[in-house]
Amino acid sequence: MMKRALLIGTLLASSIAAANAQELKLGPLRADHPLIGAWRIELPELACYEVYNLHSNGTKRSVSGKEVNESVFQISAYPSRRGFYKWVDKIVKNSGLSDCTGEKTPIGDVAVNYIYLHPDGTQFLLCTQENLNECIGPFIRQEVI
């Protein structure tokens, strides 16, 4: 359990540090992009969960613990030959409260990760590289009411 909590922190910190200077251009996703929608991950070892709401206009709202973020992002239109979508996400607004790991994500932080989408489209893994060695998940698609 502790290893998973450390992986979550490492995933977030390493991807943020690696991409901090990158600029993003806001743009719409293709209309049928499979990652548009709401996704939730349960983090029982932290007694917490996260929800990501990915909008087709390239904006995201996320909740992690008490932290609420808004960001702009780019996700590749189609998966790579290895089956991963590249996801670059930049925080533009933050509540200033702590996330599930007890950290606060500063405005301007940029994270680069890779998404491996399950073939049925109902869940994905969030990975630091285009492989399944360092991933968290599953993020489960949520019904929008």
Summarize the structure in words.
- It is a single chain.
- The model is unreliable at 1-7 and 12-21 (pLDDT under 50).
- The protein is mostly beta strands and 145 residues long.
- The chain has one helix at 2-19; strands at residues 37-43, 48-54, 59-64, 67-75, 84-94, 110-117, 123-127, 135-142.
- The radius of gyration is 14 Å and the shape is globular.
- An eight-stranded antiparallel beta barrel has the order 1-2-3-4-5-6-7-8.
- The protein is built from one helix and eight strands; from the N terminus they run αββββββββ.
Describe this protein with a few key phrases.
145 residues; mainly beta; Lipocalin; eight-stranded antiparallel β-barrel; 1 helix; globular; disordered N terminus
Secondary structure: elements and pairs:
Layout: H1 2-19, E1 37-43, E2 48-54, E3 59-64, E4 67-75, E5 84-94, E6 110-117, E7 123-127, E8 135-142
Antiparallel strand pairs: 1-2, 1-8, 2-3, 3-4, 4-5, 5-6, 6-7, 7-8
